[in-house]
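Table S2 (continued). Query chain:
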Amino acid sequence: MPNGNHIRVQTLVEALPYIQKFTGKVVVIKYGGNAMISSELFEAVIEDIIMLQLVGIHAVLVHGGGPEINEMLDRLGIESRFVNGLRYTDIETMSIVQGILCGKVNKDLVSTIARKGGSAIGLCGLDGKLFQAKKMDKGDGEDYGYVGDIVNVNPGVVLQAIADGHIPVVATVAYGIDEDTSYNVNADTAAAQLAVALNAEKLILLTNTRGVLREKDSDETLIQVIKTEEIEPLKAEGIVVDGMIPKVECCVSAVAGGVKRAHILDGRIPHSILIEMLTDEGAGTMIH
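Corresponding output:
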């Protein structure tokens, strides 16, 4: 009967080929939502990222901060307004978004990584013109304010941070190239485009579902592997719907741009990153 030590050793043995495969490779992880609110999940994500660094895998953490932005807007008595699912961002809101994302959230992540024994450096899309954007125009006649579309990624500051032995922690505020302003940009899209620019091995999107499900609300119907050519049929069948559509499309664009694998993981599962990266089991949907 295997005891606890044997089980732990077996876990390490199982992880070994994955460590060998991914050592020296870049993995871009988009982090937000429930995993940022729960202290238990927050700790697990940070521990996973430090573990990847310790075994020689270059994790790049891209984060949003919607709950913290909402909290600050509420505190200041500013109503959160959404247009077609996107946060309308006037100049006052943009100032708050930039302060919360590039300041509080980013530096809290960096300091937590440091306290747990890792080495991180905080960045945002303004640093080295990492994310360059223009004002969003979806052709629908709507004004989204200072919401931008990323038109170019200059990954030099991220590559330098990796070369210096740090975990880059990237806030999704972009440098405006059409106006003298910063832009609020979608964190999933930013992570996907950064993964392409870094020639990453993997893109991982942490979300609040198990992944792509054949039957809504039924975790047992998780589709573990999807080829990019299967996406449109899954949309037509009504399987990829609603908020899963933009996440899947981000994964498809990353794979089309040269990222080897893209994953949609359940950020509510502690250590889902390590389960996906270093075990035979996996933890969500992989798109390749």
